[in-house]
Amino acid sequence: MTNDVAGAIRLPPGVTVTEGPELHADVRELASAANFAAVTTLLGDGQPQTQITWVDVDHSHLLINTLPFTQKYRNSQRDRRVTVLVWDRNDPEHYVEVRGHVDETVSGQAAVEHADQLAKRYLGTAYRGPRQRVVLRIQPSRQVVRRSPLG
12: how many CB neighbours lie within 10 A of its CB? Predict the structure, then answer.
């Protein structure tokens, strides 16, 4: 659905919506830089729960590296639906919202190595935290991209 489709909901200037699993170019751009993400999962009673975190992207998924005892991890294992909002740290009016589901969880040394890559990107130093890491691989189903209509 975009502004150009006949019969579609009229979107505000600067907003693009895409359906399906193929990552939008803006999602790739924002998630591969040192931008932060708000990750929303669902608690057992259905209430949303949101945490700020680092984010990454591979060829087909958003990647969230976390610890296996966090609420977001436990929520994502019970109900795999998630929403991730990534904003441009230099232009907060440029952001992407990705709705999707966790379709794979990676653990072990691969998850620790990924945490090290993220620490170098975000902090400029090697990862020194707990070694029990997990990576949530999130497959998109709907993506909303917003850019300032003024710039």
Answer: 8
CA distances from 49 to 1, 20, 46 (A): 28, 24, 9
- Structural domains in the chain, CATH included, are 15-146 (2.30.110.10)
Residue 30 tokens, joined: 């924002």
What does the pLDDT look like over 117-127, one tens digit per residue?
A: 999 999 999 99
Beta strand ranges found along 80-133 (DSSP E): 81-88, 91-107
Distance in angstroms (rounded) separating the CA atoms of residues 89 and 34 = 8
Overall pTM > 0.85: yes
Please count the other Cβ atoms lying within 10 Å of the Cβ belonging to residue 61: 22
How confident is the model over 58-95, as pLDDT tens digits?
999 999 999 999 999 999 999 999 999 999 999 989 99
Select from 116, 16, 130, 145 the least CA-distant residue to 56: 116
